Amino acid sequence: MINKCALLLLSGLLSASLLAGQRVAIRPASQLAAADQDVIRQIVDLERQSKEASLHRDADFCQRTLAEDYVGITPLGQVATKQDVLRARRSGQLRYETMDVTEMVVRVYGDTAVVTARADVKGHQLGEDFSGPYRYTRVWIRRAGHWETVSYQATVTQ
Predict the structure, then answer these.
(1) How far is residue 104 from each of residues 26, 50, 81, 139, measured CA to CA in Å?
(2) What does pTM read for this prediction?
(3) What is the DSSP letter of 39?
(4) How many domains would you assign to the chain?
(5) Which element (helix H / strand E) includes 153?
(6) How far is 35 from 155, CA to CA, in rounded Å?
(7) Please, which residues have CB within 8 angstroms of residue 122's CB and are 6 or more apart in sequence?
(8) pLDDT tens, 99-121?
(9) What's 31's domain CATH number?
(10) Comparing 10-19, 65-74, 116-125, which segment has the lowest mean pLDDT?
(11) How far apart are CA 14 and CA 97, in angstroms?
(12) Given a cut of 70, is residue 26 above it in pLDDT?
């Protein structure tokens, strides 16, 4: 049985415009159902939009894409709800200057997609520098035809 996952690494098989300059590879199409390929493209595009929303402190994107029961875990182990994220975006207390996302992997399980990736970021929160390399996991679910994030967790790496 084929595991419904697609490895999105650095080699450029999806269009460059999809990730706005980031390079992505996907395992051979013959191993993925057409529906899974479409879901992967949707999720990769949502990840690109999420990155842009972070860089531009776009609270509206979070309002649209974070589930009401969203739970995020920060690199320091703090729990963040949808309202916490919206408050941080709107107040400007969390500021990303740059974000380079690489080594992205998207796994599709029906109406659920799990994304893992590396993000090299430069930014500040409440005046404190949090720049450096991170790994993150984001879980997307499709409810009523709409993708939303239910969980996110980031970890500082070396």
Answers:
(1) 10, 14, 24, 13
(2) 0.80
(3) H
(4) 1
(5) strand 146-156
(6) 31
(7) 96, 97, 98, 99, 131
(8) 999 999 999 999 999 999 999 99
(9) 3.10.450.50
(10) 10-19
(11) 26
(12) no
